[in-house]
Amino acid sequence: MKQQWEAVVIGCSSGGVDALIRLLGALPGDFLLPVIIVQHVHSEDLSHLAEIISGYCQLPVKEAEDKEPITKGHVYIAPPNYHLLVERHHAFALSFDEPVLYSRPSIDVLFDSASVVYTKRLIGILLTGANHDGSWGMSRIQHYGGLTIVQNPKTAATPTMPQSAINSIQVDHVLDLEKI
Q1: Which residues form the catalytic set?
Q2: 3-class secondary structure for 81-114?
Q3: Secondary structure class of 35 (helix, strand, coil)
Q4: What SS3 state is found at 34?
Q5: How far is the CA of 82 from the CAs of 37, 38, 54, 136, 159, in angstroms?
Q6: For 58-73, how does the pLDDT look when each residue is reduced to its tens digit (9 = 90+)?
């Protein structure tokens, strides 16, 4: 029986904007899964990431809003200075809880909440970054039977984040960005 995926979560930090542009720019306009992204940004920055990425992506791209229903075929970006969570009824929740590994939004927070909701129907992708955020979240995705994909650290702008995940769990795939 073929696996039926329901959502994709992506985490990245340093070097992530370029990686996201390349990755999301390759998605076809009829891609049906929601793509939910945490890109680390400084809390004082105003995020223009959705606007930037929308210029390269055929799918609608927007910053996620509190209590917003998750729609197939859309790309959602975590807003600056808020954790982005997936709720059981497939809507977003924003949280101003303490930073996790110095980050808010946190990749671990998104990955953990999404893994509980989507379980084995979730694809988790961890890209370039300079800290260890995302490793624990990848372990949660794996725990619930989801698919874990990590960017090859040798091709990442900053290899710390993908390497940390590889060191923490037996990820399903380690791939160059073009293969993801």
Answers
A1: 13, 40, 133
A2: CCEEEECCCCEEEEECCCCECCECCCHHHHHHHH
A3: strand
A4: coil
A5: 13, 10, 21, 19, 25
A6: 999 999 999 999 999 9
